[in-house]
Fold this sequence. Notes:
The structure holds 2 protein chains of 2 kinds. Chain A has 6 domains: about 15-130, 2Fe-2S iron-sulphur cluster binding domain, sarcosine oxidase, alpha subunit, N-terminal domain (Ubiquitin-like (UB roll), Roll); about 160-295 and about 425-485, FAD/NAD(P)-binding domain (3-Layer(bba) Sandwich), CATH 3.50.50.60; about 300-425 and about 500-515, FAD/NAD(P)-binding domain; about 515-595, Arc Repressor Mutant, subunit A (Orthogonal Bundle), CATH 1.10.10; about 665-855, 2-Layer Sandwich (Gyrase A, domain 2); about 860-1000, 2-Layer Sandwich (Gyrase A, domain 2). Chain A is of the alpha+beta class. Helices cover about 20% and strands about 30% of the residues of chain A. Chain B is mainly beta. Chain B has a single domain (about 5-90), classed as Folate-binding superfamily (Folate-binding fold, 2-Layer Sandwich). In chain B, the strands form 2 sheets. Chain B has a 4-stranded antiparallel β-sheet, with no helix packed on it. In chain B, strands 1-2 form a two-stranded antiparallel ribbon. In chain B, a hairpin with a 4-residue loop joins β5 (about 65-70) and β6. Classes of the chains: A alpha+beta, B mainly beta. The interface of A and B includes residues 740, 744, 747, 894 and 900 of A. Bound molecules: zinc ion (ZN). Zinc ion binds near residues 62 and 65 of chain B.
Amino acid sequence: MPNYRIHKTEYIDETKRVSFKYDGKTYFGYEGDTLASALLANGIHLVGRSFKYHRPRGIVSCGAEEPNAICQIGSKKDLTEPNVRATELELYEGLEASSQNCWPNVKFDIGGINNFISPLIPAGFYYKTFMWPKSFWKKVYEPLIRLSAGLGKSPTEPDPDIYDHKYVHYDVLVIGGGVSGIIAAKMAAKNNLKTLLVDDKKILGGSTIYQNNESIKIDDKLSSEWLKNEIQEIKKLSKLTIKTRTSIAAYHGYNFLLAKENLTDHLPEEKKENKIRQRLWKIRAKKVVIATGSIERPLVFNNNDRPGILLSNSINKYLDYYGVTCGENIILFTNNDSAYETSISLHKKGIKNIIVDLRKSASSELIKQAESLGVKIYFNHVVTNTFGYRKINSLEIMKLSEDGNTTVGNKIRLSCDCLGMSGGWTPMVHMHTQSGGKLDFRDEDQVFLPKENSEDQISVGSCNGDFDLENIIDKTVNKINKFLDIDNQDYQDTNIICSKENDKRNIWLLPNKIPLGKTKCFIDFQNDSTAKDIKLALKEGFRSIEHVKRYTTTGMATDQGKLSNMHALGIIADTAGVKMGTLGTTTFRPPFTPLTFGTLVGRNVGKFFEVVRKTSMHEWHVENNAEFENVGQWKRPWYYPKNHENMHDAVQRESKAARDSAGILDASTLGKIDIQGTDASEFLNRVYTNAWSKLAIGKCRYGLMLNEDGMVYDDGVTTRISENHYLMTTTTGGAANVLSKLEDYLQTEWPELDVYLTSVTDHYSTASICGPNSKKILNKLFPNLDLSDENFPHMSFKEDKLENINCRIMRISFTGELSYEINIESKYGNSLWKMCIEAGKEFNLTPYGTETMHLLRAEKGFIIVGQDTDGTMTPSDLQMDWIVSKKKYDFIGKRSLYRSDTVREDRKQLVGLLTDDPKEILEEGAQIVSDVKSKPIDMLGHVTSSYFSPNLNKSIALAVVRSGKTMKGQKLIIPMENKNINVTVSDTIFLDKENKRLNA
Amino acid sequence: MFLINCPFCGERDQSEFSSGGEAHIVRPKQPTELSDDEWAEYLFMRKNIKGIQFERWNHVHGCRKWFNVVRDTSNDKILSVYKMGEKPPVNYK
Ligand SMILES: [Zn+2]
């Protein structure tokens, strides 16, 4: 097996060999490697196929910007992870990785045929081709796209890993642990500011940490040595927290940032177990220093995407940091000085290399150094083509014309096994723009820079466009002193020597004799978009960068165009003949690198996903086989199946028992608001549609609450407990909103009212007993209470004791039966319930759930707000005009009840429906029409509630129907998938219209 | 994510608050006297300003008090916070 590890470095521990599998084959690397450096050490460049043309692709970079080396990690159904960048993944024993996006394998890929039909896949291909015929979508296009597209595979089982969230507050947050970040963190922490320094890599130091060029020195030491000292020093600072393997995902307003800390992704399987995998840091910082550095740019020329073509600086890092050479015969293609550093490093390790430089000449210290080492330099030359299928084996260069617009002279063919490209550097301004900052364009080297720094955030180092070390350190120190309003002198006498770049020449799309249409000049490697695609988009009339981006999909892959956005902009500017700075940029959206869902969700999974509210009787319901229904956060008994009954049978039994003898319902979840104060009656007058001033103490009244727009908002029974004391009940789901609404009016519109509101929903538990035998059961429980209709009539309230515990008993009914609600402090709720059950045994007291409750109230035509109403129903629409006071001057929503729209006769109105076949049960939500033949069919309304009534032995339904009030007796049709159901409009009250049962 | 300085509790995270739309819209004292258009103006019409906007906020997961906020919607800066019933600061228009 070839070995490209050619020298030892302090970052690779050669005593710790690590075995890993890539595409099923076993390889070895060392502790300290990334998956990418280990693959390169084994001579592997080819790591995937491109998205559209399935061209072979190799490792391009050594960091977060990597577009090609994205892998599927692991094969377990619950733990496999797609789209992991091999350049960031630290190697561990037992790692299993595979290439993505190729079938059957990376070396022979069927989709590669796309490469040869590529003239047929231009920009906007998907938009253009897959438009028609429509029938092809389901059968041809979609399966085809699904098979050939998509990056990697999702896990198919729940994620067993543990994730965590943490909230922190700091005076200063420094993003990025390169030279400028380290200086900033040190200055802040030494000045007694609580400081957090985060860096996404395993160790601090950025690109300076492996710097070994003699022409770049600080205080007479290699800059890397100097920086190591600095790192040792900052580790001692008590005010400084350092978090490595931590990357900022998002920068929100008010200096609120999200960071992802990787805790176990670098550990072998057995060491990951039971540990937190990733932690999401939610950071509030008074000040933020952005020191995120810059990313090297590729160059855009024909066939610039072959395996073996990397960014020049990445070749340098693989060599000096990982000890791995990317080839043995390397060509560096550049438009700036940084490739010369790589060249000199390679030369030192004995790796032959040649430089092709776009510039006519260059004269810095680095260039002199390379020249003196005898490195062959082709100035004023351009790479025009590359060769080699699975890996580059040679390339052609040509001389550039004076203006750089074309090539001149003869092709020169050079052989190589690796090409490094350097198109200059792009400052990472993502964090700055995410925070709301604007950008300026610097023509000289064609970079976007942070425009202004605010008092809350600042950019330093190369993300601020400062590229040489002297500039970086001097400016960072000055800016940080100002930004933090301190006077740090630590770097006053620091002596920095570095090479200064004097010459620049940038050409976004390099010239070629071959017509552009016949070239493959890639811009976005991951989404396979080329210079030709961009030009085509412009030709077809697209102008805005945001449109060109979407049309060509440039910059829309998982790398979000970190390597491609600038080139796309540059080519658009050149083609359209406008200045690049005037085009603006696309939006830099969070996250900077993809986040796992696990990190975002943290611990809020499984039983911690949502708060569960249980009543004090819950245990009894569980013991008695209740099926539960979620109502808001509450668990409510839905029905109680006996002897393997299904839901229908259980509900029929429960409903019949409640009307024939007695039923009991846990009504504890209804919202309860305690209202006190001298203006309590006036307050109720204003919030309900009916009048409250005359309600006697000890009496109960049903109320309907509207929104200011006149639509029904909530309903419930309110009891007057004493002169200035009421207990309001609300719907279960509406409790919190009703309280908020009442508080809003009290605080903002009627602050003069003396009213106090307290939510007591959780403080009282409620057992509701109904049915003809309910009075007898009550009598057993409260033998001293006079239950006669004279003393305790319907809609009234009494207090009595149950074994010394105070109970509030309301005689109110939501079923139409004689009915009592017993309220008790919640801690006694379960005992109360059990005592009721015990007392009711001889009367077949049957516990019933929400489904039976819904059925019983529907028989009586009582509405459920939120089921029979949907925020568009007025009281009149519900045929409840009787509850709207004509005398009251005002109440919430009153004025809206006679707006031109609310008084329309043809609004949807609540009606009853009876099916012609009494056994036929309608589907809730079904549409209602009068004529199925006309087209389009005129929709009149829909079914809101539907049940089979065991007490009436027929199907009943409530519905909202246009002009329904006038339609009683009329025939309508419910069209269903296989049949039309004939119905007749009826009254909304199906049972006991005379209310005889209330006093049975 | 804003930091909001509740006039009763002090600076708290936005997640403790809920927004209640435009401030200083007074509920008409005599709604019955209003035409449909006038009532609709109160009921439905809201400004949506790019720039300095007066808003109602409720410290719903805190003291549950409503209060007013002056916010520049172009950069989300909160310029002023004041209690219900108090007049908006004169220096913002
Ligand atoms: Zn508060």
